UniProtKB/TrEMBL annotation:
The active site is at C91 (acyl-thioester intermediate), H345 (proton acceptor), C375 (proton acceptor). Belongs to the thiolase-like superfamily. Thiolase family. InterPro entries: Thiolase (IPR002155), Thiolase-like (IPR016039), Thiolase_C (IPR020617), Thiolase_CS (IPR020613), Thiolase_N (IPR020616). The keyword Membrane does not apply. This is Acetyl-CoA acyltransferase. NCBIfam families: AcCoA-C-Actrans. Its EC number is 2.3.1.16. It is an enzyme of class 2 (transferase).
Amino acid sequence: MRDAVIVDAVRTPIGKGKPGGALHGTHPVELLAHTLRALVDRTGVDPAAIDDVIGGAVDQVGEQAMNTTRWAALSAGVPESVPATTVDRQCGSSQQAAHFAAQGVIAGAYDLVIACGVESMSRVPMWSNVPAGADPFGPGIAARYPDGLVPQGISAELIAAKWGISRGAMDEFAAASHRKAAAAHADGRFAGVLVPVNDVTVDESVRPDTTTEVLAGLRPAFEDPGMAARFPQIDWSVTAGNSSPINDGASAVMITSSETAARLGLRPKARLHSFAVTGADPLLMLTAIIPATERVLRRAGLTLADIDLFEVNEAFASVVLAWQQETGADLTKVNVNGGAIALGHPLGASGTRLMGTLVEALADRGARFGLQTMCEAGGQANATILERL
């Protein structure tokens, strides 16, 4: 059976997702085109040899509508003969794009594919794709969940309550994310993947001076009297400081087979060893990373002890800490270069951003196996195991 390997990975710096943010002036199509162009230039491949470009974006409306990935590929100079598509598995969209790309290579349907993602949350704000008064769920969901679903922030609070995760533990985790991200920038550990946009060279949301004392002064971000009556167990401890921020950014990885890489003179960096996707309770929507981790390990024939490094998306500190409690993973191996709380979470770009970060971290440490997993709205999660080559 053919394998699927990553030969290169790139990403933009991550900007603050608000007017005045470092990348606000760049159209999302151009953000993604920037990474695609860099990937083709760095690898030296003939862009006409690309079989498909599979991208992720969450809010596919306005400037991210009409199959953003296709327009980004054309803007990057890829020949018109190369197709492209845009998928939505919420925050895991570009990780799912990488799964689709790898599955196509393994099946023999593709030889060379780019998986990528973009989100410009300053130009296309969250929920832009749900007009006021619109119901994206329909009557069947209302009947199945008569008490109603909840926003992700409330889900993060429910997770903290269910797993007994304190405000102090979440703030310490968040402060550590900033320390690790700042150290990674200072040590040049992102140099292998970062492709500057104009004069933007670093991730804008990283705050090296963040401390637990500073974070302790922030007010709960999602406190709501109606939700408090419905969920009296909530202590209201999720804040802007222990959650991922709103961001702009794009990322991409090039995936091929070992045989094609050899033919093109490319050196594989990692093999996509195993992948899985699973669902869970949409009320506790951010917990699917727990069964996804278990499933991908079973598929791989590996145990948690075999995994050298983890990338677990830091949508909220409570999500990662609950995952750690359930899996027993060593937190010193998790997000060693910081996570989304510090680096940022441009939704559609985060999957392949994590993948590129993990590839580089495995190489830096001479490690073999890495596992990444991503919680997703609606109660889903992707998980991927990479093997360094």
